[in-house]
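Materials and Methods. Structural model of Helix-turn-helix transcriptional regulator. The 334-residue sequence of Helix-turn-helix transcriptional regulator from Paenibacillus chungangensis was retrieved and submitted for structure prediction as follows.
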Amino acid sequence: MRQYIEVSFLLVGGKDVMKLERLLSIIILLLNRRMMQAKELAERFEVSVRTIYRDIDAINAAGIPIVTFQGMNGGIGLAEGYRLDRNIMTNDELAAIVTALRSISTSYGNEQHQQLMEKLNSIVPPAYSEEFRQMTSRVLVDLSPWEGNERLQPKLQLLKDAVDRCMVVAFTYSNARGEVSHRWAEPHTLILKGRQWYVQAYCLEKEQFRLFKLKRMKELEMAEGKTFERREMPAQEPAMNNSRYEPSGMTEFVLRFRADSRYLAEECFGVEELQPCDDGSWRVRKAYPEDEWLYSYILGLGHHAEVLEPPHLREIIAQRAEQIVKLYRSDQAT
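The predicted structure was written out as tokens:
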């Protein structure tokens, strides 16, 4: 009995969505050809041979058996008896893939994504095309910031190339405390979290993996001629690492919102978090890491919210508010 391959894993099972089109293309090529050389695949997709072998491992891990044939006429090919049956991917599954690609492209768009969407749309039967178009237009997860990310795109492209080619990058970095340093790093993974782009890289100065925020990177460039061997990644994925929000590093605080500022409290914290007070105001009790971000966030609420506790946080916000007042007093203007 002939066995079949299901390709929908590429969307839901692959950890790196940016290589989705390459994995799918490799499978299609191997379906149409008996065998291909790793070098040929590497040249075709403009990546290293090492990257191709990692892709092959990922495809194998998804349950699609790829065999390596040794010898002069050897290469890489699918195990005998396996082929792709388009009918195994339902219209709903196909629509889910196209919808996800459109969403990804709002923050990380390139020509390959567009080509892949066109390929997937091309296998939709003509009689179903209008219904399919409607299905793929029902949901769009827009991951782009309101101000756009035109300035970020060159950094993303450079880092993607560096990851694919295993090239060391150099850049100037400003951390959350405003400390500026020059770094050399080996980029391994691009990460989108909370509408912000990060790169997980091995810092050659600190000799450990670090997470760098792209917005804080300046003078970014590839160090031509400086390549690296990919290292074993940390056991815990940085995108899922919420150690910053562990109870030991949190400060619990209470905010009181004015009665006419309920809309703002709901938008910031959600309807369920609001507690009504007898005077018509609203209280919110939360716990966040106490740092510059928290101080700026509370100050950004302006006159709509007041810190009730803890006392030390109330004092810090009061002091900073006084500094702002001094900054804007007319008698201080120059």
